[in-house]
Amino acid sequence: MDTFIILLLNSNFFICMDWMKGTFMMGEFKILEMETLAPEIKRLVVSAPLIAERAQVGQFIIVRVDEKGERFPLTLVDWNPAEGSITLVFLEVGVSTKKLGTLKVGDQILDLVGPLGNPAEIERYGEAVVIGGGVGIAAMYPRVKALKKAGNQVTSIIGAKTSNLLIYEREIKGWSDELHVSTDDGSRGFKGFTSNVLGELLNRGRRFNFVFAVGPVLMMRAVTEVTRPYGIRTVASLNPIMVDGTGMCGACRVTVGGKTKFTCVDGPEFDAHLVDFAELIARLRTYIGEEQQALRILEAKGLGGG
Ligand code: FAD
Ligand code: FES
Ligand code: MG
Fold first, then answer.
1. pLDDT recorded at residue 19
2. How far apart are CA 291 and CA 279, in angstroms?
3. Which bound ligand lies closest to the C-alpha atom of 254?
4. Are 65 and 109 in contact (CB under 8 A)?
5. Is 73 touching ligand 1 by the criterion CB < 6 Å?
6. Atom of ligand 2 nearest to the CA of 250
7. Do 75 and 237 meet the contact criterion of CB atoms below 8 Å apart?
């Protein structure tokens, strides 16, 4: 059993230690870079030396922007232990991500906890496919890199609604044996979804040993249904609502293979063929009314208004 010790020193400084896994994190998170990658998608480099030292592929952090802020998870896209920094990429969808997007180089993030979640299993599968949709394209980058370094033949498939939302293409291409691009509107690459691209490759007789998907739940579910008849091992990085990120609140409950799992401590990656995606979709919509109302209030006040 994991034992957590959380020391709340004051409202903006705390230490949390997962005694068994050695997860350790503490305050002062200064923004080193903030870059707009695409409309409403930002790349943030923040000083977090202890997280940078321990980060592994597949893990995430939990952020709280300011004292009134809620806690929300973001995937570790990159980390630099020498510089003591981590890279996050986020889509400004609601109050918390929009508030994060208003911060500038030199500003501080109030709380940042991590690395959380289990590291990804990186094996030598042979022919591996990595699929990312929307902001999930950035989240797939460390996976592509790690699979390539482990000696796999890596086919990457990235997709977005339209061409100007395609991010991290150059970085992913650099570590892939093959890169396929799709857009919903056909403005770049294949017209359609990433799951259609994978389906086409399989129809043409390509065979893969492993598929990893990260992005919108509907995309991950579609990829799962494409690989199911072929029996290809498929892993998805799930994105339920999270609050504490340490297995205590139950917010991130998902059903996998008929069993209850907590994504933050049992995942975030699971055998996609066993995931109850319908439940995940329903649970993600639980607070949609409140989220939209909170966004309306924030926009009425002006984004800097807190
Ligand atoms: P809101 O308007 O509050 O919410 C918009 C939608 O986001 C909601 O309807 C709900 O479906 C989801 N959401 C809301 N609150 C949370 C929460 N506390 N936890 C998770 N989902 C929530 N997004 C990125 O842009 N980049 C990432 O790298 C990234 N990595 C993630 C990694 C994990 C393990 C998980 C679980 C989620 C990740 N997300 C990522 C999703 C991100 O956490 C949500 O987009 C964010 O919390 C939305 O908050 P909001 O207040 O801006 O929007
Ligand atoms: Fe609370 Fe996972 S986020 S149990
Ligand atoms: Mg929110």
1. 42
2. 19
3. 2
4. yes
5. yes
6. 4
7. yes
What is the rounded CA–CA span in Å between residue 260 and residue 216? 21
Distance of alpha carbon 78 from alpha carbon 56, whole angstroms: 9
Cα of 180 to ligand 3 centre, how many Å?
33
Angle between helix 95-102 and 288-301 (nearest 10) = 30
How many residues are there in the chain? 306
Regarding the beta carbon of 247 and ligand 2, being less than 6 Å apart is answered: yes
Return the domain boundaries, the chain: 4-116, 120-217
Three-state SS letters, 61-75: EEEECCCCCCCEEEE
302 pLDDT band (50/70/90 cuts)?
confident
Cβ 167 under 6 angstroms from ligand 1: no
Look over the chain and give the mean of its residue pLDDT values, rounded to a whole number.
Answer: 92
Task: State the distance from the centre of ligand 2 to the C-alpha of 22, rounded, in angstroms.
Answer: 18
- Give the pLDDT confidence of 150-200 residue by residue, as tens digits: 999 999 999 999 999 999 999 999 999 999 999 999 999 999 999 999 999
Residue 251 Cβ contacting ligand 2 at under 6 Å: yes
Q: Which residues make beta-bridge pairs with 72? A: 63
- pLDDT value of residue 268: 98
Range list of H helices, 118-183: 136-149, 169-175
Determine the topology of domain 4-116 in CATH: Elongation Factor Tu (Ef-tu); domain 3 (2.40.30)
Phi, psi of 168 (to 5 degrees): 55, 25
Domain 120-217, CATH number (from 3.40.50.80, 3.90.1570.30, 3.30.530.20, 3.90.245.10): 3.40.50.80
C-alpha span between 162 and 182 (Å, rounded): 9
* Residue 93 φ then ψ, to 5°: -105, -30
Output the CA 71–ligand 3 centroid distance in Å: 8
Is the dihedral angle over the CA atoms 103, 106, 107, 111 positive or is it negative? positive
